[in-house]
Amino acid sequence: MLSAIVVATLALAGCGGSDSGSSQSSPAPSPGDSSRMEIGGAVQQPAKDQAPTERQEIITGQVALTAGDPVAVGRQIVDKVDDLGGRIDQLTEQPGSDDQDASSSLTIRVPADSLTRTLDDLRELGKVTSVSITKSDVTMQSQDLDARIGALTASVTRLQGLITSAANTADLIEAEKALSERQGELDSLTAQKRSLSDQVALATIMIDVTTTDAERPSTGPDNFWEGVVAGWNALLSAIAGGAVVVGALIPWFGFVAVIALVVYGAYRLRRTYNRPPSPPSGPAPEREEAKTP
């Protein structure tokens, strides 16, 4: 008996999810509305006094700006985000050096309704060179999650009541198994809804702060004397670099010389073993002249 009740409860939970989704997407008009659905499949008109569905959007953006001191500007951005009630998800600071300009990279999360104020604050801190804002509508996804969470919550409540009134161990085990599955689905959907709500509530903006062209140090000489000094320094650097290269090659030259001596010695030794024996010493025997008959 309880098994049939559990199956019916699961079926009702599935129907409840679909009914909740359909009721939210297409609410029925009140009896006093002048706009009614006509017989024959006419399209239903929404009630005039019905409140519109609140639009939910995920806002992401990228901002690039230049400033004289990118590291200091990055820290000022952190302070402004704190004032807005947001948070910093990522921060990278690169101090300036001879080979690389200073820069800052941030990923900030600010309230979605403070997006305009955030952009205005960034324009006060430096020169904004590019702005890209993207809005993704997730209204239907949020409504679907709400409907499924509501249906699963009702199903879990009913199963908990069935467990309380279970007559035997078999029914109790089956009801607890169904409850465990429903509770797992409910926890997963609740986590998805919480993550989606966080993305909707806080806009995500990635900011890159670099040095302005005017602040970059000049690398070339400005007059004749500076050109001479720069050439002399380049010559000394070349000589020093050449000496380093020669010093690094000397061990290799010694190694190659040793290998060459070993190969040459082996070659001479092989020639010595393969040389044919020399003829015996002494006067060569006289050859008898052929006699003429």
UniProtKB/TrEMBL annotation:
<feature type="region of interest" description="Disordered">
    <location>
        <begin position="274"/>
        <end position="293"/>
    </location>
</feature>
<keyword id="KW-1133">Transmembrane helix</keyword>
<dbReference type="InterPro" id="IPR025645">
    <property type="entry name" value="DUF4349"/>
</dbReference>
<feature type="region of interest" description="Disordered">
    <location>
        <begin position="15"/>
        <end position="52"/>
    </location>
</feature>
<feature type="domain" description="DUF4349">
    <location>
        <begin position="55"/>
        <end position="263"/>
    </location>
</feature>
<feature type="coiled-coil region">
    <location>
        <begin position="172"/>
        <end position="199"/>
    </location>
</feature>
<feature type="transmembrane region" description="Helical">
    <location>
        <begin position="243"/>
        <end position="267"/>
    </location>
</feature>
<keyword id="KW-0472">Membrane</keyword>
<keyword id="KW-0812">Transmembrane</keyword>
<feature type="compositionally biased region" description="Low complexity">
    <location>
        <begin position="20"/>
        <end position="34"/>
    </location>
</feature>
<keyword id="KW-0175">Coiled coil</keyword>
<dbReference type="Pfam" id="PF14257">
    <property type="entry name" value="DUF4349"/>
</dbReference>
<protein>
    <recommendedName>
        <fullName>DUF4349 domain-containing protein</fullName>
    </recommendedName>
</protein>
